[in-house]
Amino acid sequence: ATAAPACQVGYRVNQWQTGFTAEITVTNGASALTSWALTWHYAGNQSVTSGWNATVRQSGTAVTAESLPYNAALPAGGTVSFGVQGTYSGTNAEPTDFALNGVSCGDTTPPVTTTPTTPTTTTTPTTTTPPAGCADAAVCDDFEQQTGTAPAGRWTVGAANCQGAGTVTVDTAVAHSGSRSVKVASPGGYCNHAFFGASVPGSGVLYGRFWVRHTTPLPAAHVTFMALRDTADGGRDLRAGGQNQALQWNRESDDATLPAQSPAGVAQSVPLPTGTWSCFEFAIDGAAGQLRTWLGGSEVPGLVVDGVPTPDVDQQWLGRAWHPAVTDLRLGWESYGTDPDTLWFDDVAWGSARIGC
């Protein structure tokens, strides 16, 4: 029998006239690694301008992608994904000489477990995220370790109260980073809701971040794409979604909305773009009774509860004392009318400090 190779590499390119992105998936061989570096050479004039999920350097035609703290451990048979963006002219041939920790991926010799020495002649490291700030997040999941048809591990798939045609699947065709995301599809209608969720800390300030992509503009009717169970509100949900074609928060127990659903209130929110990835961030401070929301890194004025009632924003919300204690986070789609949508979620993270996009 032939010994297994030290590694296998998948290199998936999306290119346009002068630029490209490449999603790279590395499958390790029989020896576990505590850190990794993948190297390759470009045959043309490709120039890497940025990378995500790895520290990427280029010197001439040689490229090195090194692990980050949150994805450094690579077990035997395990996989890790990262990406690069670059420019080129002429042809954009795929590399063929990948090596993991100095050992060719066509070789049967196990790669070494020590961190490779950085080349002495390099350009400045080009690092950008997604996922951003994962080293400081309590949980950061890009779904690259999911091997089944539905998210598993920390994630549970479910539909409360009634179940219909809504589905939750791991998708390998659309991703924000790497090669996997979670796809939620619903034909609309309350019983066709579908969510996947995980436990989050029930005390302290909770910061969350995820990237979302969807296909249908937010409708006039009330919809939800994130729900958090609030044990301080009888186990009812704190919900983020939309109404009147703009983002909103909704409190299930009394149907209070943020902002108030007046023309002036809705004008202080924003729509959720379709056909592109959007970074949605939030912060919930239960002790202070405060809530903040960002889209694409910019705070949304109409989605802020600061403890001081503001007409058309949080005056209705603060009509009663509010000190949430959320214990789970669920992502998906729930339509209280007949509005369908298909959404993808990726690079989900939460922790005790803002994570960023």
Characterization of this structure:
This protein is mainly beta. It has 2 domains: 122 residues, Immunoglobulin-like (Sandwich); 216 residues, Sandwich (Jelly Rolls), CATH 2.60.120. It contains 1 helix and 24 strands. Strands 10, 12, 13, 15, 20, 21, 22 and 24 form an 8-stranded antiparallel β-sheet that branches. Strands 11-14-23-16-17-18-19 form a 7-stranded antiparallel β-sheet, with no helix packed on it. β5 and β6 form a beta hairpin. About 6% of the residues have low confidence.
Short description:
1% of the residues lie in helices and 41% in strands. With 357 residues, it is mainly beta. Strand 8 (99-100) and strand 9 form a beta hairpin.
Weakly predicted, low-confidence segments: 114-133
CATH architecture of the largest domain: Sandwich
How many beta strands in the DSSP annotation?
24
Radius of gyration based on Cα positions:
22 Å
Structural class, from secondary structure content?
Answer: mainly beta
- What is the CATH topology assignment of the largest domain? Jelly Rolls
Q: Can you tell me the number of structural domains?
A: 2
Strand fraction equals 35-45%
Distance between the termini: 47 Å
> How does the major sheet shape up?
8 strands, antiparallel
